[in-house]
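Hey,
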Amino acid sequence: MAPVDLDEIPDEEGLGVDASGVRMVVEVTSPGRRDLQRDRVRKRREYARAGIPVYVIVDGFDDEGAVVVLSSPDQKKAKYAAEHRVPYGTDAVIP
């Protein structure tokens, strides 16, 4: 979730947006081992490092399907302090 006008939060190089202006990322996992590794591990680490406050992973490949809500990023450790996982069909609370 970012401002409608992304020109309000350009990055230093003018190639994208400054992560500090992004309040939430919602990811739907892709099939395949490499794709799942990217979605579940690498992106989680990089979004935490960037300080994205909330990262939601909709994972149809986690057992019967799950929604993982990550919040409270620790930028120095590149990890989220809070993780809440709920199976499909259960309400997920997004801070």
